[in-house]
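Submission checklist for the structure archive. All mandatory fields must be present; incomplete records are returned to the submitter.

[x] Identifier: Hippocampus abundant transcript 1 protein
[x] Organism: Cyprinus carpio
[x] Residue count: 463
[x] Sequence attached
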Amino acid sequence: SKPSVYHAVVVIFLEFFAWGLLTTPMLTVLHQTFPQHTFLMNGLIHGVKGLLSFLSAPLIGALSDVWGRKSFLLLTVFFTCAPIPLMKISPWWYFAVISMSGVFAVTFSVIFAYVADITQEHERITAYGLVSATFAASLVTSPAIGAYLSETYGDTLVVILATAIALLDICFILVAVPESLPEKMRPASWGAPISWEQADPFASLRKVGQDSTVLLICITVFLSYLPEAGQYSSFFLYLRQVIRFTSETVAAFIAVVGILSILAQTVVLGILMRSIGNKNTILLGLGFQILQLAWYGFGSQPWMMWAAGAVAAMSSITFPAISAIVSRNADPDQQGVVQGMITGIRGLCNGLGPALYGFVFYLFHVENLSVLQNMYPPTNLSASVPLQSAIIPGPPFLFGACSVLLSLLVALFIPEHNALNLRPGSYKKHNNGAQSHLHSSQGGTCEGKEPLLEDSSCTFYTR
């Protein structure tokens, strides 16, 4: 059959549905394996994985531009899902393989390039939105299903089911997914050279200072996404171990905030962009993020987490608004390089953020607070005595709020309308839209625009 967007949709849904099922068992195994340093080890594991993904994504993209998408889809899905059965076999090996799997955990890069190969330019935004919405939907539903099965039948069944779904995804790629890269674009032999310049993960970051507006945007992204990346890696563990949410409540929290985030990035974002403008939408989103992180930092009651979660959904409008201001101000031949800078910075934050949060949790002895919390029965009605007595229950989130405040101050100086001026020689255009997409950005589109739903879906990336 001919390659289609629906092939990409099925691959993404199966992979992340399998991982979403493991949300509850993973939190349990993590605490059992590292009872004294749960948050620190969680940060290190996700930090190593994020840094490896940042370093390897451009190389895998360059290789897939030469050798085709299907083989790299198979490679990324296989190695991303390889740790799943190890959860019950050997938890230590499970977390070790998770860290190392970051080398290949770039399925989205290959998927977006696959979609770019088979769609026309005017169709790509819709196609990327469909892929991202599928990603979000899989992780909105699967944690709740996994929590129910874990409570009813035990964690072993959940791991077996997740492994079976991952194998189904691999078989689907082998049997049903056709190659999307045209035959004429592929070399006659596997020894064909690749563009090592495009495989350099720091290539886009070196161009940040070429334009003052680009520099302001990149600083804004770094200061705001660094705490967000750390939050993604540790927040559900924090809810479970410190706030004492049950497994079912964590799953419900993921689903509710996910749905609200999707609504915020579709309905609310469009209204705000039309009514208050692009820059003010960015500032509003950063304001919501500051409020959300401060609430997480000082909050000691479960209802506070729910309220802050609703605010977190509103803060998800920031990055689509940043992508929009870049797309509007950059020339068509400069869209990719500017978006590549932003995505490169976010990739770097995916490594630094989790490690930083884990270290701050460790520095403020949040693990000790978690141990004290375990002396009290879990409840969703009130917090226990140790948590109420802590002045700052969540120090990393307060640090994150300060970082985003600095980001807000920097964003005030971003001009609403200003042509981005990058030296033409600093960016080498590629010979087709698919290559431009994958080379320029790990998560962006060929036009340099991120799908509107991508940031909301990342909210549930609990691995």
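[x] Structure attached
Curator remark: Residues 378-389, 424-463 have pLDDT under 50 and may be disordered. The CA atoms of residues 337 and 428 lie 9 Å apart.
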